[in-house]
């Protein structure tokens, strides 16, 4: 049966622009045919796409662990936009509808998927993670069940922070945080800040945060951290401990020093949650304090079905992750955005591609 997939669509140009990575630290704009949604697919006109720390790892090194980029390649996994066309057989979504895209598609059949932890699925396909192309482009064909409708009053930029915000919510869910818990978060970058917002919404009574970058410490202060310290000053762990026992500490930096500080500042029988993605392949633990305190060490990976909860919390104003957006770039300046984030220049917290 032949049907016109564009019968239900906006006007779609024949070609579109994509910011294609052609080598390490090289991104060029290429003109490509605009994809057409196939059976059971939708075409999304992208409007905002966050630049993530993991994008920057791929941009600089071409790999994270054994996930290796083959050029040409498209990064970008924090997209929001509007439905531009529906392929045959798609119901429940409408042209013009505003959506965020869930970047992770798990297999649904493996052990991890069946026990409700699809973020650990070994077969997961994740936008902008090799070998799956990402979304630094104008249009993207996608599965409708991966499109999450957003309320009218939530901007595209806010919607493009859904994925990192969901990472913070997942980390807090993993913790597990109890009302009134006292926390420390190492790292005041985007993930540290969204973890703080999630932890506040979940009832943390005290949150200490550390970061070597002054602008990031200032942001943590602005967003309501109770104590903000430079970890290089020395004595940060002691100063945090002096305020009272820390029940849970989060590493949101992926640095050895931050992981050490997190495990050292937690009370005996407490919990350390490691969210950061280290640039190196191995990290170590300060084993005797960790062992004597019998800490629970939790690794948090991406997010686990937290997008709906994130949208609900955004809609009620309990979290406002778009406040972390400090810089905006057009598609032709993806590389500039990557370099800015890599060098932590100009007070950058979250940079976003807007189009
Ligand atoms: Zn991300
Ligand atoms: Zn699976």
Order of helices and strands: EEEHEEEEEHEEEHHEHEHEHEHEHEHEHE
What general form does the structure show? Answer: globular
Alpha carbon gap, first and last residue: 35 Å
Biggest sheet overview: 7 strands, mixed
* Whole-angstrom Rg: 21 Å
Q: What is the SS-derived class?
A: alpha/beta
| CATH class designation of the largest domain | Alpha Beta
How many structural domains are formed by the residues?
A: 2
Spans of 5+ residues with little confidence (pLDDT < 50)?
Answer: 1-5
Can you identify the CATH superfamily of the largest domain? Medium-chain alcohol dehydrogenases, catalytic domain
Count of helical stretches: 11
- Estimate percent helicity: 25-40%
Which CATH architecture of the largest domain is right? Alpha-Beta Complex
Average pLDDT, rounded to a whole number, is: 94
- Per the CATH scheme, the topology name of the largest domain is Quinone Oxidoreductase, Chain A, domain 1
Number of strands: 19
